[in-house]
Amino acid sequence: MKRTHLIASSLLVATTAAAGLTGTTAATAADRDHGRAATYLLAGDPVDAANPAGSKFEGIGADERRGRFYVSEVTGGELHRGIVPRKRTENGVEVGTARTREWLAGHGTDGRYTARGIAVDTKGRVYIAGGPNGIGDGGVDNGRPDLWVYNRKGRLLAALQTPGNDVFLNDVAIGPDGAAYFTDSNDAQLFRVAKGRNGWKVRLWADATDRIARETGFNLGGITLTPDRKAFVVAQGNTGRLWRFALKTGKATPIRTGGADLVDADGLVLQGSRLTVVRNFSRQVATLRLSADGRRAKLIRQRASSPDRVLTTAAELRGQILYVDSKFDEEIASGPYEVIADPTR
Questions:
Q1: Could you tell me which CATH class the domain 4-340 is placed in?
Q2: Are 235 and 281 in contact (CB under 8 A)?
Q3: What is the pLDDT of residue 46?
Q4: Which InterPro entries match (predicted)?
Q5: Which of 155, 179, 180, 285 is most buried, by CB atoms within 10 Å?
Q6: Structure confidence at residue 51 (pLDDT)
């Protein structure tokens, strides 16, 4: 059975269609600037033998055209979908209903046991990074897919393995060419996924292992385009560095950030020239001004995120930045499971 939540903006009455599910509540709040829901509840799994850690989450991808966002569940690989409605007013007051539900099952569905970063292209196709799905805890190829592509109705288009071994696909962004580009948290590599004449293919697009040393922990993670759309900005969380990957050549060069502390950099969101960097376990959100070509970034501010959350990735959708509360700080996760618009709450 699909797990569903209906959550109204606090300008309306908050409800849930899945009342009684373990670890969930009907609480919600309104975003002060937009009059939209600022908290979106995600249905989690009960803690049992199949889910000893409860539910933990990580990735989020936004479909601006259709007002949808997708969230990945690390524990099991389920995909959840939420809706942010277009603004509408009644007597000059903005109202709307936010909705989330389990969109795709996990626990082996299409070979998916965990899921990480997500991106959505202009056709509504959803690209999902599998993290260690293809290597498991032992870091050895187990024959499972490393990534998946679905159409907007949830039909599987591709389940692919990357070339090479020990690949941990972390995050994904859509390039100007319409292809999807995935980061690797184990090595300084980017993989390109696109549909060609002979179907969906994945290939190693950029190998920067000669320039970016593999360090302990998570290496390449968050990814976004530069303002001029001629390169990618990629976060290296364990060192706190940002890297520029040129689209023409795939060459990686360090972005000059003036010594800004960006350790634990995870999700990246670009709005114009403003780059938001979510620093997960550091519990900070950094804002930088990025040059058009992505070669320089100036720190504007750092602000503390909620001490009770570990925020991972984020995405902009219809004027809001939505942040995923991962529950990574809890050995056994408990609800409420949430996507939030205010990282300080």
A1: mainly beta
A2: no
A3: 87
A4: 6-blade_b-propeller_TolB-like, SGL
A5: 180
A6: 85
Dihedral sign from CA coordinates of 146, 152, 154, 156:
negative
Contact by Cβ (8 Å): 70, 325:
no
Q: Is 132 left (phi over 0), alpha (psi -120 to 50) or beta?
A: alpha
Q: What is the pLDDT of residue 140?
A: 84
C-alpha torsion sign, points 160, 125, 116, 169: positive
- Tokens linked to 193: 């996924």
CA geometry: angle 342, 20, 85, nearest 5 deg = 40
50-72 burial: b if 16+ Cβ within 10 Å, else e: ebeebbbbbbbbbbeeebbbbbb
- Hunting for tokens 């408990």 — which residue is that? 334
Residues 6+ apart with CB under 8 A from 39: 7, 27, 28, 29, 338, 339, 340, 341, 345
| Per-residue pLDDT, 89 | 61
- Which residue type sits at 209? T
230 closest CA partner among 273, 181, 281, 175: 175
b/e code 163-174 from CB counts within 10 Å (16+ = b)? eeeebbbbbbbb
The residue written with tokens 């990686």 in the block is 252
CA distances from 339 to 38, 62, 153, 174, 322 (A): 8, 13, 22, 22, 6
Q: Look at residue 319 in the predicted model and tell me its pLDDT.
A: 87
Kindly list the averaged pLDDT for each block of 10 residues, start to end, along the chain of length 345: 43 30 33 62 89 95 96 97 75 64 97 98 98 89 95 98 94 98 97 96 98 95 98 98 98 98 98 98 98 98 98 95 97 94 94
CB of 251 within 8 A of CB of 231? Answer: no
